[in-house]
Amino acid sequence: MTVDRSSPGSRRAPTIRDVAQRAGVSKSLVSMVLRSEPGVSPERRTAVLQAVSQLGYEPNRLARALAGNGTGAVGILINDLRNPWYVELLDGISTAFEPAGVAPLIVDSATNQRVGRSSIQILMRQRVDAIIALGTSGEEAGLTTLSARTPVVLAGTYDPASIDADVVVGDDVAGARLATEHLIALGHRRIAYLRGPELVGELREQGYREAITDAGLVDMIVADEAGAMEESGYASARRVLEAIVRPTGIVAYNDLTAIGALSAAQDLGLSCPDDVSVVGYDDTYIAGIGRLSLSSVRNGTFDIGAMAATFALERIGGFDGTGRLHRVPSSVVARRTSGPAPL
Amino acid sequence: MTVDRSSPGSRRAPTIRDVAQRAGVSKSLVSMVLRSEPGVSPERRTAVLQAVSQLGYEPNRLARALAGNGTGAVGILINDLRNPWYVELLDGISTAFEPAGVAPLIVDSATNQRVGRSSIQILMRQRVDAIIALGTSGEEAGLTTLSARTPVVLAGTYDPASIDADVVVGDDVAGARLATEHLIALGHRRIAYLRGPELVGELREQGYREAITDAGLVDMIVADEAGAMEESGYASARRVLEAIVRPTGIVAYNDLTAIGALSAAQDLGLSCPDDVSVVGYDDTYIAGIGRLSLSSVRNGTFDIGAMAATFALERIGGFDGTGRLHRVPSSVVARRTSGPAPL
DNA sequence: CTGTTAGCGCTTTCAA
DNA sequence: TTGAAAGCGCTAACAG
Q1: Rounded to a whole number, what is the distance in Å from the CA of A218 to chain B's nearest CA?
Q2: How many helices (H) and strands (E) does chain A have?
Q3: What is the structure's pLDDT at A1?
């Protein structure tokens, strides 16, 4: 007595064989229909399709992948879910993946490292077809060796060790420059930069320096190491604001460090924006929180995600050119943490 | 001429066959060693292990899964990555999964629904061994039918339609009660509750009502529908704060609605906590942001995640009992948004 | 204790 | 056009 797999209610998931049997054709014919290959008679095609829907058949991606066709999943390597920047980036990615039927599999690097695991390994074990690394994960080394086997796309960060990968970033130099110019236009002359990690941090610093120099404020430059999180931003802002010559404006590496700077100002009895103006970076949803209302640099985050996904898709599709670089423009969003310089 | 798969540098990933060949044993012997089955001589075992490490062999989970042993991945269904509550929950989950070698695959329901896809289907296509649904995803219907085939664990939400699933939650009644009592202890007598969605919202309301009643404040009860996000919290808080009899204390459904309430108070020219105290729920990292410093209810979020993961693991391991319910205790974290009632 | 054999569900030659 | 057969990498049942 064999198990009945032909009725929808049966326990076992229907296989391609069940479909074939029900449609009165062979396995491979079904396969061809499913992959919409040409050369199948219309009658048989509809017969198959009908059987598929009657059975509620779902092709088993595992088997498909094993037979050599990829898993239809792309790994998304995030370094810390806490950074709200990712939310919108993921939105962009998902949107671009949707028509292709590719599923994003998110893995959080910070959490995994805490439990002593390699996110990249997790993703490879799942046999993802490509990996999109978001921001700086601290697992770059793994990516370098990986990129030979699996397409890698870097989003919002640069290739730290000449990985052969596509790169999608915001225009960090221009964005930081805009933020700084925004403050300069408001009359600020002492402006500090809270520097973030990696090349992105440096590029933003460069934009900041350019704006400062162009405005003839050269010797007012203060750049302090501020990391990428709230706590480090707080510490850095405190140092800067307690200096002999206190800046009236702060350009922060990202929104989180900016939030930290806000707290630091508050703790020092400085009001914002009356005593000190703060501009963040990335324009995450946190910046928009009414109570915070943080001025920030809009980064085209959604577009970065979408473009990264597109690159990944192309690589999966077989594109084999050299690593590409795509840069998305930035703009400033003025909210309530930036105002005219105090007299 | 066949491809050389025995040297580490070769393009193709080594298979169990390569290992067997190199160790001079049979495929199945290797398989046994890898799954640490008993009954293998020590010499052969070490030989196999050596070959494995020399080749850098990684078992192909796809093949393993196809052969009937699960994918070693469990799907994490999140309804909106924007809610910081998930961050810590995921931390708890990952921690519990680590020793078992199980990988969490995160899927964001909000994003998928936006692009018209079912998160559950994505997860099932990946053939996850179990699904942990976090909070209220709006995809409950799918879970109901699913739970017959794949273990489902609900975390931070209750079974809306008698799904046969394990459930892990915070003690919502007690938590809301604590929050309300915290305000009462501070002298507040007019306290409003910003109600959230679903059963969780109701349970928190219940805790709130109990505390109010116990304190003999019965007719001061104001419960307003406030959703789960900042915007809806803002709208709700405005309604409540513009009423003839303005409350001096607000218990919010979660931190996000509380943040919205903070903004509403601010926009109405009310200072917090001098004019109105606000208590959030979940004690997410957002509550801890210095500028916000939101009093909140700590929910044992990490523990909820860990327990949910444990349940999932047990189900995967074959546990087949009826749906279990685990409740994690709550406590209040007083920060700067709650203070003595105004005179 | 060890090796052989037969699938898991799918794709992919290759004949018919 | 269609169908049969081989095989992806692994596990499991069985015989040596």
Answers
A1: 32
A2: 14, 12
A3: 32
Residues near A47 by Cβ (< 8 Å), separated by ≥ 6? A23, A24, A25
Question: Contact at 8 Å (CB) between B80 and B110?
Answer: yes
Neighbours of B268 (CB within 10 A): 14
The CA distances from residue B77 to B113, B120, B134, B161, B201, in Å, are 12, 8, 6, 17, 20
pLDDT in tens, A80-106: 888 888 888 998 998 899 888 888 888
- What is the DSSP annotation of A189-232? --EEEEE-SHHHHHHHHHHHHHHHHHTT-GGG-EEEE--SSHHH
Mean confidence (pLDDT) of chain B: 87
- Test A126 with B126 for CB contact under 8 angstroms: yes
Work out the angle between the directed axes of helices B27-34 and B16-23 (0-180°, nearest 10).
110
* Cis status, amide bond into A329, omega within 30 of 0: no
Structure tokens at A325: 């670089």
Residue nearest the C1' of D8 (CA based): A67
Task: Answer yes or no: are the C-beta atoms of B61 and A126 closer than 8 Å.
Answer: yes
DSSP strand pairing (B73-78 vs A331-333): unpaired
Q: What is the DSSP string of A129-187?
A: SEEEEES--S-HHHHHHHTTTS-EEEESS--SS--S-EEEEE-HHHHHHHHHHHHHHTT
**Amino acid code (one letter) for A305:** G
Say which range, A150-164, B38-52, B67-81, B83-97, has the weakest mean pLDDT.
A150-164
The dihedral formed by the CA atoms of B283, B286, B290 and B294, expressed in degrees to the nearest 10: -50
Could you give the CA distance from residue B17 to residue B23 in angstroms, rounded to a whole number? 10
Q: Are strands B296-298 and B331-333 parallel, antiparallel or unpaired?
A: antiparallel
Residue type present at position B249: G
Pairing of strands A103-108, A73-78: parallel
CA angle B336, A265, B263 (to 5 degrees): 45
DSSP assigned state of A31: H
Alpha carbon distances (Å) from B149 to B36, B67, B132: 28, 18, 14
Residue A218's contacts (CB-CB under 8 Å, 6 or more residues apart) are A212
Average pLDDT for residues B288-314, to the nearest whole number? Answer: 94
Neighbouring residues of B75: CB distance < 8 A, sequence distance ≥ 6: B104, B105, B107, B122, B123, B126, B128, B130, B131, B132
DSSP B98: G
Burial class (CB in 10 A: 0-12, 13-18, 19+), A99: exposed
Q: Which of A36, A40, A34 is nearest to A58 (CA)?
A: A34
Q: How far apart are CA A306 and CA A311, in angstroms?
A: 9
Q: Is the CB of A125 under 7 A from strand D?
A: no
pLDDT exceeds cutoff 80 at A161: no
Would you mind telling me the total number of residues written for chain B in this entry? 343
Distance from B213 to chain A by nearest Cα, in Å?
Answer: 32
Q: Is A1 exposed, middle or buried (0-12, 13-18, 19+ CB in 10 A)?
A: exposed
Residues of B with CB below 8 A from A231's CB?
none
Q: Which nucleotides along chain D are within 7 A of a protein C-beta?
A: 1-5, 7-13
Question: Exposed, middle or buried by CB within 10 Å (0-12, 13-18, 19+), for B315?
Answer: buried
Quote the tokens at residue A260.
Answer: 């930290």
Give the number of other Cβ atoms within 10 Å of residue A197's Cβ. Answer: 17
- The nucleotides of chain C lying under 7 Å from a protein CB are 1-5, 7-13
CA distances from A78 to A85, A116, A138, A195, B218 (A): 10, 16, 10, 21, 48
Enumerate the residues of chain B whose CB falls inside 8 A of the CB of residue A11. Answer: 149
pTM, whole model, 2 decimals? 0.85
Which has the closest alpha carbon to B324: B159, B136, B150? B159
